[in-house]
Design a protein that fits this description.
InterPro entries: TANGO2 (IPR008551). This is Transport and Golgi organization protein 2 homolog isoform X2. With about 270 residues, the chain is an alpha+beta fold. It has five helices and 13 strands. The strands form two sheets. The chain has a seven-stranded antiparallel beta sheet, covered by helices on one side. It has a six-stranded antiparallel beta sheet with strand order 10-1-2-11-12-13, covered by helices on one side. It is globular and about 45 Å long.
Length: about 270
Amino acid sequence: MCIIFFKFDPRPVSKNAYRLILAANRDEFYIRPSKAADFWGSNSEILSGLDLECGREGGSWLGISKRGKLAAITNYMEGRVNPDVQGRGFLVSNFLMDKDLDSYSYLKKVSTEGHLYNGFNLITAEFKAKQDTVCYYGNRGSPEPIHLKPGIYGLSNSLLETPWRKLLQGKRHFTSAVSDQSLSCDGLVQELLNVLNNEELNTPDPIQEGQGNGYIQAQTAVCVRTPHYGTRTNTIILIDAEGNVTFTERTMPNCDTSVWSTSSFQFKLQV
C-alpha cells in the first residue's frame, strides 16, 4: 500500500507559491532491502530511493531529475499478483532516465505494455521553463493516459481519486496544510509529514474492502503500521515558481519502526 497527495499549479500567482507540492508514503515489508534517496544516473542528475530486492534492483517508487522529470507509482490492490512479471518500479526509473519521450508519450507507450505488469498507477510529469505537464495512467482503468488539470489530487492503491476513506481524510488534511500561506518552507514540510504519519483507522470502508481480497484493517490508515509491513518512507517534494526544488525524505534505515532518518536535498531545475 502507498499513498500520494499532490497540488499541481503551473502558474503560481506569487514568487513564494509552489508549482508542485507532493507528499507521499511508501508502504512495504520492513525487511525488503532498499536504498535511501540520493542522486544517481549520468552526471548524478536523478534523485530517488532505489529498490534493492533481488530481480527488482534499480526500480523506484518516486523520483525527480534535475531536468525537471518526475515520476511516482503505486500498486493497485488486487487479490492475486504474478511474482514473475517485470517489476513495476522500473516504470519510474526508466522514465527518469529517458531523454526522448515526454510524459504523455511515455505513458502512451507504457499503456501498450500494461498487461505485462501487475496492477499499478503511474504519474509522470515535466517541469519546464515554458510549460509544466502532469499525466496519469493506471493499467486497471482507462486504456489511455490522461493529462491532469491544475488542482489537488489523491492517489492510493486504487485508481486516481477513488474515494477510499483514508484518501478523503488525508486529502482534507493535505489541502488544509497547503492552503496555509503563513507557513515557511520548513513549516510546510513539517505539516505535510504530520499528514503522512496519521495512523487513525478509517473504518468501515466498503469501497476499499470491496476491491480484491488483499484488504486488512490496518491499511485504512494514511500511515500503515503492522508488525512486519507498513509505512517506511515519507517523501515531500516542493517546486517553487523559480524552479527551486526541496526534496525531503524521512525513512526507516532498518526494521525498527521507532528509528527514522531524515535527509533533505535542494537544487534548481536545469531547464
